[in-house]
Specification:
Radius of gyration: 23 Å
CATH architecture of the largest domain: Alpha Horseshoe
Number of domains: 2
Shape: globular
Number of strands: 10
Largest sheet: 7 strands, antiparallel
CATH topology of the largest domain: Serine Threonine Protein Phosphatase 5, Tetratricopeptide repeat
Mean pLDDT: 83
Number of helices: 12
Strand content: 15-25%
Distance between the termini: 20 Å
Low-confidence stretches: 9-33, 35-65
CATH class of the largest domain: Mainly Alpha
Order of helices and strands: HHHEEEEEHEEEEHEHHHHHHH
C-alpha cells in the first residue's frame, strides 16, 4: 500500500487539474496555502525560558517548512511539530497498543530521531517522565556510561553512551527528552554512532524547533470540498492519521448529498482508505473501499486498494480476486492514471513467494505495460 502513495498523491492533484468546470489547481493550491498559514498563526510555541535557545526557536518559525513534521494522536486537538531537514522518514505509524511512533534518519550527519506519543489513564507529569527515564537508565546500567539526568522548563532529559557492543567500538550517544501534555507523554529519542564532543548540538537543534500546534476543528458548515482540501494537505504531508478526520467528515457529507466532482470523490475514497490502512485500522480501510465499490464498481483503483487491504489481512484468495478485477477494469482509470505494479507493492510482499500469487502478479503487471 505504501509503495503507491506517490502515485495516489498525484491522483489527488490530478483530480483537481482534470476538472474543466471546477476550481483550477492554482486556486486549490492558493486555498491550501491560506489554510496552512492560518494553522501556523494559531500554533502555540513550546517555550523554554531557562535556555538561550529561544532566539533560534523564533528564527525556526520564519524558515520555509522544509522537512517539517507534525505528529499527533487521534482524538487530540494538538500535534507535535518539529523540523527535520535532510532526514528520511522510515516509520510514522500507530502501534497496536495505541502509541504513535515516528522514526527518521539523516544519512549525512548520522543522527537518528524517534518520537513516541503515548496516552495514559491519568494526567502526564514531569515526575512521570523522570520515573520512566530512571527505568531506562536502570535497564541499560550494565552497558551505559556517562549517564546524565537534567531538566528544563519543557523537558526532562536522560543522556548516556554505549561505548561498545560485543567488543566492537560503537560510542553511540543517546539523548531522551520527555515532556508531558495532558494525558500524553511526548518522548523524543536521539542517537548517533561515533559520537564526538560537541555533537549534542545536532540533537538540540531539532528540539529547538519543537512546538505544540493546535489542530482546529473545521469551521461549522465546512463543505465537503473544504474538508477534502484540508485532508489532502495533511495526506501530502504524510500525516495520514491527521488526514482521517477531515476526509471522514467529507465522506459523511458526500453520503448525504453528492457534491464533489467525480475525480475528487475517487481521491477521497482512495486516500481515506489508505490513511486508515497505513494507520493500522484495516477494518475501516476495508469498509471505506467496500463503500467505494458499492457506489462505483467499475473504478479499478477501489478494487486494487481492496486487494491490498485483503493482503494486509492475510486473505490471499480475496486479494487475488480483487487484484484480478482491478486489472480487468484498468481501462476505466482516470485518464493519465497508471495501475500500480503489484510485484513491487509491499502489501503483497508476504505472498510473492507463493507460486500462484506471484504468477498472477507477474501476468497482471505485464498486461498493463
Amino acid at each position: 500500500m505504501k509503495t503507491k502513495l506517490a502515485a495516489m498523491i498525484a491522483v489527488a492533484l490530478f483530480a483537481a487539474a482534470a476538472l474543466g468546470s471546477a476550481q483550477s489547481l492554482e486556486d486549490l493550491a492558493k486555498k491550501e496555502k491560506e489554510r496552512r498559514e492560518k494553522l501556523k498563526a494559531e500554533s502555540k510555541v513550546i517555550t523554554d525560558k531557562d535556555t538561550a535557545r529561544n532566539s533560534r526557536d523564533a528564527a525556526a518559525l520564519t524558515q520555509p517548512p522544509e522537512g517539517r513534521q507534525r505528529v499527533g494522536l487521534e482524538g487530540k486537538s494538538w500535534s507535535v511539530s518539529f523540523s527535520l531537514p535532510g532526514f528520511e522518514t522510515s516509520t510514522n505509524t500507530v502501534k497496536a497498543e495505541g502509541r504513535r511512533y515516528f522514526y527518521a534518519t539523516n544519512r549525512k550527519t548520522g543522527v537518528n530521531v524517534s518520537l513516541t506519543l503515548e496516552a495514559t489513564r491519568q494526567t502526564a507529569t514531569k515526575e512521570g517522565c523522570r520515573q520512566y527515564q530512571q527505568k531506562v537508565a536502570k535497564g541499560n546500567a550494565s552497558v551505559a556510561s556517562d549517564v546524565e539526568f537534567s531538566d528544563s522548563e519543557r523537558f526532562s532529559f536522560l543522556g548516556f553512551t554505549l561505548r561498545e557492543v560485543q567488543g566492537h567500538p560503537l560510542n553511540q550517544r543517546y539523548l531522551r527528552a520527555c515532556a508531558p501534555r495532558e494525558d500524553v507523554y511526548v518522548d523524543f529519542n536521539f542517537s548517533k554512532v561515533q559520537f564526538a564532543p560537541g555533537e549534542e548540538k545536532l540533537f538540540m537543534a531539532i528540539l529547538d524547533t519543537a512546538r505544540f500546534e493546535d489542530v482546529p476543528e473545521p469551521p461549522r458548515g465546512a463543505s465537503a470540498l473544504d474538508l477534502w482540501l484540508e485532508g489532502s494537505a495533511l495526506f501530502r504531508d504524510r500525516n495520514y492519521r491527521g488526514a482521517i478526520g477531515p476526509y471522514a467528515k467529507a465522506l459523511e457529507l458526500e453520503k448525504k448529498e453528492r457534491k464533489l466532482e467525480r475525480n475528487y470523490w475517487y481521491a477521497l475514497i482512495d486516500n481515506l482508505g489508505m490513511a486508515y490502512g497505513i494507520s493500522g485500522n484495516l477494518k475501516d480501510a476495508k469498509a471505506t473501499f467496500e463503500y467505494g465499490i458499492s457506489q462505483d464498481p467499475q473504478y479499478p483503483l477501489f478494487h486494487y486498494n481492496m486487494a491490498c487491504t485483503y493482503a494486509e489481512l492475510n486473505d490471499k484468495v480475496n486479494a487475488m480476486e480483487q487484484l484480478t478485477k482491478a486489472f480487468e477494469l484498468r481501462a476505466n482509470a482516470i485518464p493519465g492514471e497508471k495501475m500500480p505494479d503489484p510485484r513491487k507493492d509491499d502489501s503483497f510482499a508476504r505472498f510473492m513467494k507463493d507460486p500462484e500469487f506471484s504468477a498472477l502478479a507477474e501476468r497482471l503487471a505485464k498486461s498493463a505495460q
